[in-house]
Design brief:
heterodimer; A: 592 residues; mainly alpha; two-stranded antiparallel ribbon; 25 helices; 10 strands; 45% helix; B: 447 residues; alpha/beta; Alkaline Phosphatase, subunit A; two-stranded antiparallel sheet; 13 helices; 33% helix
Chain lengths: 592, 447
């Protein structure tokens, strides 16, 4: 066998970057004008455009020179025919850990978050709720069993509050029957079928024979909590008319769609009552629920979970820094920084201006005395977090918060490449080509004389690197006012820090000064906005967008725009698309 | 720590075991010679990532008269228990989707290309997970039926899941078996029922069986109504429930050396605990094998592209970061050599542990096959020729150890052949695995 240089190295983006000598210089992504903008179809480069498969990352343009297309239907879809409902695929979705915890909290009042012990989900496209990625494993099956046993025992420790009848006065059979019907309908999120009812009765009867009435109920709970009807959101849809390929979900299915979209938990009493009356079919009824549900604090938790995944907040408290370089950065500080960002995002989105631009530019944050003292901000006292106005010459918005700056850094120094990459990938939805496999990925040696900018100059000097790094480094180096642990600084090795930067290949190209300048620029970027919309689409529906979703995405983008790019309006818009209001009709055994 | 007497184990740990003739269980420890069924064989996979440094890895000398290299020197005491294999190529890892790490990792134990998917690696086309079952699971499907756990997948800082970089074992194409990184959770899962209140355990087992049976009954009313994709998902779920039920009611036999370990408490996410976590996992693994709770086990150190910082060796960067440096960076080559020496020490520790368990006239190591594998040959070139495989243990006499085997450059010897030999050593008759295009039968001169 000839051990040739692997053939794949000579195609794709490397062809552009090395062979042709034009590194990474393609046009980024699909233009965001909504015209012919197919989700997943990058217009960049000359290679294979990344197709959006059933579960594909839209527009991972691996081919050709340049940054893969960060496609996304923008604006109102000129050229799109959006008359017939086109819902895209709809899969049975297993509850992820967050949803499991929320669901048992609302079903049983259990606050112990048992799913924290389950294996972590596969993150697909950045999120932990992708339907096709949520597979079952032997470990998980066993942990479902263990959790069900613990949850059932805990719930039955206070039997009167769980079971509204008295087995002695009302009779064991009658009491068990009424419990099974009521509890089963809540756990399975629909009224029990005859077969489901019979199954839970079998569990009860076996438990009672084994020990007693209470054990019977314990087995009902354990069975319900391990049943696919609880662990998955399975849908069938309403019965189709002849020839119909798209149907509405049933009222009970819609109740679950709503509750898991807005709360990532089970339907509440009001949703169940509405479903019982079949009042979740018409759009007006559905939209009224959306408005009601958005006001519930559970909706804030869902947005917080998105933020956690999208802005890497979950990584804050596992940060480890080199204490010889950053002695003040302790686990305490990391935790406070996480709280700062959670509070900030919650405030901007729900109590403040509410728009994506303000997340990037808001002139305030939240700190307590300890965190303020770390940052060197005077005048904050006490352990409680208070709103603090920022020195606008130093900080504004999420990108200047210590937690994110520390996550996007090495243990002993800053990481301009990571910081630039974050802006490109998370905020602009650019798909950056990975570095060539055969190069030395090693940050330049630490220096007591050179600035970080000087140390990283090799990236722009070397032809193999400059093509891609010119996309990241001129952005990332403007973060140099913040050290690897988020502290503000104006000098490095006794030299004044130069934070002049430039964005190329974007809809907001041009020069700027520092992260505050960068944030201003990004806040006006259409790409940042459609990136946010696309990301929320994936999170909300637990899947990547497909060609069939072009109209839905266009509509979401349009409503996002009309709202002044408010995140909460984006969520409401996601409850009004075809993808949400309809599902494909799939006959038994059929494909979709 | 208390050695459990056999009666306790029989009563305590296995519902069905209670019904088994005492002698049948006893004979596992080799004491009832006349009716002795063969001692059980075990398979252990030991994975370390990011390639090795071949010039410091390859022994010198002949097949039976050889000198270990710097990297393998810690195995000196086990020289007669190992087979060092040089010249076998992971041919499959040069084909198909994904980057070199991804293909190397996916093909390592499966011998088949990656599925299409969305993970974009350092080069190549995006890819999904492995396209077939891994050899350890092929073996587990045969020899793991009677044990409480068909197999155990243990990890040491393997990081988050989701991509092909993260998994060693696959139950099937696209069905990875995530490693458990937390020794405390492994202990709870594997050992917590050993000993304890017999009556309560029996009751618990009966209850669990009822519940799982009832859950399974739901399959009939749910699955037939579903579309193909959802139906496959439900089928996979019910299959796991069925397996879980089998595991829970399986018998637990035990050798004389079965000792309930102490529950470990280690911060299993801290980089610098890497050596301590690894040792705890190996201890648990060996005891799970000694107690015959499982016969197939995997220990995955880091992951493909693993970037653990070997700070205890003086490393100031992660493993993967080092592995990319050019050969001209001599200090890096030295560090990578040290990292691989360290892995040899861990491998030696595992072998010594296995050899400390007496079985019949020999030790458990004699009845075990241990496979040390890596997803790359060398880190900086991301290559797959001359994969650094080391086998250990005699697999009940199937493997002739104390040898250094070299295979020719041409014609290429694909590593699928080695995987076939692993199956054969474990008693499976298979003559191919994964993609047959990269397989010409068992590895010559191995067994």
């Amino acid at each position: 066998m000839s051990r040739s240089f692997s053939s794949h190295w000579t195609k794709g983006w490397l062809l552009g970057s090395i062979v042709a000598g034009v590194s990474c210089t393609g046009v980024i992504g699909a233009p965001d004008n909504g015209v012919n903008s197919r989700p997943g179809g990058g217009t960049a480069g000359s290679g294979t455009a990344g197709g959006a498969g059933a579960d594909g990352v839209g527009g991972a343009g691996v081919g050709g020179a340049g940054v893969g297309g960060a496609g996304g239907a923008g604006g109102a879809g000129a050229g799109l025919n959006c008359t017939a409902p086109s819902p895209g695929p709809s899969y049975a979705r297993r509850l992820n850990r967050f949803e499991y915890n929320n669901t048992v909290r609302d079903l049983l009042g259990d606050q112990t978050a048992p799913a924290n012990d389950f294996p972590s989900e596969e993150r697909r496209n950045g999120f932990d709720n992708n339907a096709t990625a949520l597979q079952i494993s032997p470990t998980l099956a066993e942990q479902y069993m263990n959790a069900a046993e613990r949850l059932a025992a805990a719930a039955l420790a206070n039997m009167p509050s769980l079971v509204p009848c008295d087995p002695i006065k009302d009779g064991e059979d009658a009491c068990a029957k009424s419990f099974i019907a009521a509890f089963g309908a809540k756990a399975f999120r629909h009224p029990l079928s005859v077969a489901e009812n019979a199954r839970l009765w079998t569990a009860f009867d076996a438990g009672r024979k084994l020990t007693d009435f209470k054990t019977g109920l314990q087995l009902v709970l354990e069975t319900a909590l391990q049943s696919p009807e609880f662990l998955y959101r399975v849908e069938f849809g309403t019965a189709p008319q002849v020839g119909q390929t798209v149907v509405k979900p049933t009222s009970f299915e819609m109740a679950s769609r709503l509750s898991y979209l807005l709360w990532q938990s089970m339907p509440d009493d009001a949703l169940r009552a509405a479903a019982q009356q079949d009042k979740l079919v018409g759009n007006d009824d559905i939209f009224a629920q959306v408005d009601r549900m958005l006001k519930d604090p559970k909706a804030r938790a869902v947005v917080a979970h998105f933020n956690e995944l999208w802005f890497h907040l979950d990584q804050y408290d596992v940060l480890e820094k080199d204490v010889s370089v950053f002695p003040a950065f302790t686990a305490d500080i990391a935790g406070l920084m996480a709280e700062e960002s959670y509070r900030f995002l919650d405030h901007v989105i729900w109590d403040g201006a509410g728009d994506i631009g303000s997340i990037l530019t808001a002139p305030y944050t939240f700190m307590n005395a300890k965190l303020a003292s770390y940052y060197g901000v005077p005048g904050v006292v006490g352990d409680s977090f208070v709103r603090v106005n920022l020195d606008p010459t130093q900080r504004s918005g999420l990108l200047t918060q210590g937690g994110l700056l520390s996550v996007l850094a090495k243990s002993n120094q800053t990481a301009p490449v990571h910081r630039g990459k974050f802006v490109r990938e998370q905020l602009l939805c650019d798909e950056l080509p990975p570095p060539p496999p055969d190069i030395i990925i090693k940050p330049p040696e630490l220096s007591s004389t050179l600035s970080t900018r000087e140390r990283f100059a090799q990236h722009s000097a070397s032809a193999a690197c400059s093509g891609c790094h010119q996309l990241m480094d001129p952005i990332g180096l403007t973060f140099e006012n913040y050290d690897g642990a988020g502290k503000y600084r104006t000098t490095e090795n006794n030299k004044a820090i130069d934070v002049s930067g430039e964005i190329t290949q974007s809809d907001v190209t041009g020069t700027f000064q520092g992260v505050t300048g960068l944030a201003q620029k990004l806040s006006t970027s259409q790409k940042v906005k459609s990136c946010m919309a696309r990301s929320w689409f994936r999170y909300a529906y637990g899947r990547a967008e497909t060609d069939a979703d072009a109209c839905a995405l266009a509509e979401v983008n349009q409503k996002f725009k009309e709202s002044g790019y408010k995140i909460t309006s984006l969520i409401v818009a996601l409850a009004k698309t075809d993808a949400f209001l309809y599902r494909p009709y799939i006959p038994a055994g059929g494909a979709q | 720590m208390k050695v459990l007497d056999r009666r306790t184990l029989l009563r305590g740990a296995g519902g069905i075991a209670i019904g088994l003739p005492f002698l049948e269980i006893m004979s596992r420890s080799g004491t009832a010679a006349a009716q002795t069924p063969p001692l059980p064989k075990r398979l252990v996979v030991f994975f370390s990532p990011d390639g090795s440094i071949r010039e410091n890895w390859t022994p010198t000398g002949t097949e039976t008269n050889f000198q270990l290299s710097r990297i393998l020197a810690p195995l000196e005491a086990h020289k007669q228990n190992i087979v060092v294999i040089d010249g076998v190529d992971n041919v499959c890892a040069t084909k198909g989707l994904g980057d070199d790490h991804m293909r190397g990792m996916g093909a390592m134990l499966t011998g088949i290309e990656l599925l299409p998917g969305t993970t974009q690696g350092g080069a190549g086309d995006p890819a999904g997970l492995a396209g077939g079952i891994s050899v350890d699971q092929k073996v587990a499907n045969v020899i793991g039926k009677s044990t409480k756990f068909k197999s155990l997948e243990l990890g040491v800082l393997t990081g988050g899941g989701g991509t092909v970089w993260a998994y060693t074992s696959y139950a099937d194409a696209n069905v990875p078996l995530p490693a458990d990184n937390n020794p405390a959770s492994v202990f709870n899962r594997v050992f917590s029922q050993l000993g304890g209140d017999q009556t309560a355990l029996q009751k618990l087992r009966a209850r669990r069986k009822t519940v799982l049976d009832t859950v399974m009954d739901g399959y009939g009313s749910l699955a037939p109504q579903l579309g193909a994709v959802d139906k496959a998902r439900m089928e996979a779920h019910f299959a796991e429930i069925r397996d879980l039920e089998t595991r829970l009611t399986a018998s637990v036999g035990a050798g004389d050396s079965c000792v309930k370990p102490v529950a470990p408490t280690i911060d299993y996410k801290a980089n610098d605990n890497f050596p301590v976590i690894g040792k705890a996992q190996m201890d648990l693994m060996v005891m799970a094998l000694a107690c015959d709770l499982t016969r197939v086990a995997t220990i995955q150190w880091e992951r493909s592209v693993g970037d653990v910082r070997f700070s205890w060796l003086g490393a100031d960067r992660g493993h993967h970061a080092y592995s990319h440096d050019a050969d001209s960076a001599l200090d890096t080559v030295e560090m990578l050599t040290k990292i691989n020496i360290w892995y040899s020490e861990q491998f030696a520790y595992l072998l010594t542990k296995l050899a400390s368990i007496k079985e019949g006239a020999g030790t458990m190591l004699d009845n075990t096959l241990v496979v040390w594998c890596n997803e790359l040959s060398r880190g900086n070139s991301h290559s797959h020729p001359d994969m650094p495989f080391v086998l250990a243990g005699r697999a009940g006499g199937a493997l002739r150890t104390g040898r250094f085997l070299t295979y020719p450059k041409s014609p290429t010897v694909p590593h699928n052949n080695l995987l076939v030999s692993v199956m054969n050593a474990m008693g499976l008759p298979d003559q191919t695995i994964g993609n047959p295009a990269y397989c010409t039968g068992p590895l010559a001169n191995l067994l």
